[in-house]
Design goal:
By secondary structure, the chain is an alpha+beta fold. The protein has 4 helices and 10 strands. The protein has one domain.
């Protein structure tokens, strides 16, 4: 008998390629999941360790009455906001001493932060209007009534709109990997903000985080392809308590 040639037959090559493809396919999903977990962790870390401290630092460094920054206007159409500010430029937008809008994008340029979240969208930002007002009779004061912003658990089973936190001074959120409702990281050719499509009508909790009222939803993420009984949700939400804000300003010597 002749010794076998060291070459592979076409059938053997096909078998090897099939096995490699199966192995690669089995690895792609875990790698994708790992990447999304890493991005989510990075977003949560940036929200808590960079953005919230920046809001506190801004409030302590403002002249006259201490106050929070205003949102960057999201409005399309000429890039203009009430008061003459420019939408989507990363700067806070004011109409005199008051905020041009109470809900918009995080004013990343004003705060000296990165422009986008790990998925390339702008963070959204809502603030209790009085706490961001630079008027001497407003701003943050110990004698103020508590802010009316609050956090709920949304439509999650057994916790439907149960209040999670009252007296919230400001809310910052990432719109996650589905980007629904977010402002894109770039502007269009006319310099206007590019607003990514709103969540589907079935995504009540994600729509709640965009309607500009005083209620925001924070709950665990849910993928309807994995659990059809829970609506889709991938927003990442953090908030600044009015008491944390006031305590910080007392320690900084800005409040008595």
């Amino acid at each position: 008998m002749h010794p076998r040639s060291s070459g592979f037959t076409l059938i053997e090559v096909a078998i090897v390629l099939t096995i490699l493809a199966m192995l690669a396919g089995g690895l792609l999903v875990p790698l994708s999941d790992s990447l999304e977990r890493s991005r989510r962790n990075n977003a949560e870390q940036e929200l808590r360790e960079q953005i919230l401290p920046a809001l506190l630092g801004f409030s302590a460094s403002t002249p006259d009455v201490p106050h929070l920054p205003c949102p960057d206007c999201r409005r399309n159409g000429g890039g203009n906001c009430p008061g003459g500010g420019t939408a989507g430029d990363g700067e806070e937008d004011r109409d005199g001493d008051a905020c041009a809008v109470a809900f918009g994008a995080l004013p990343w340029a004003t705060l000296g932060l990165a422009a986008t979240d790990p998925w390339g969208s702008r963070y959204s930002y809502g603030v209790f209007a009085d706490y961001a007002d630079a008027d001497d009779d407003k701003g943050v004061e110990l004698s103020d009534n508590d802010p009316d912003l609050y956090i709920t658990r949304g439509t999650l089973a057994d916790f439907q709109y149960a209040v999670q936190s009252n007296g919230v001074a400001a809310v910052v959120l990432s719109h996650g990997p589905n980007h629904f409702g977010a402002m894109a990281g770039n502007l269009d050719s006319g310099g206007d903000p590019i607003l990514i499509g709103n969540p589907p009508a079935s995504n009540d909790d994600e729509r709640e985080n965009l309607d500009g009222d005083n209620k925001f939803v924070m709950r665990p993420p849910a993928d309807p392809t994995l659990n059809s009984s829970v609506e889709e949700f991938d927003d990442i939400v953090v908030w600044l308590s009015s008491y944390r804000l006031r305590g910080f300003l007392v320690d900084a010597g800005r409040l008595p």
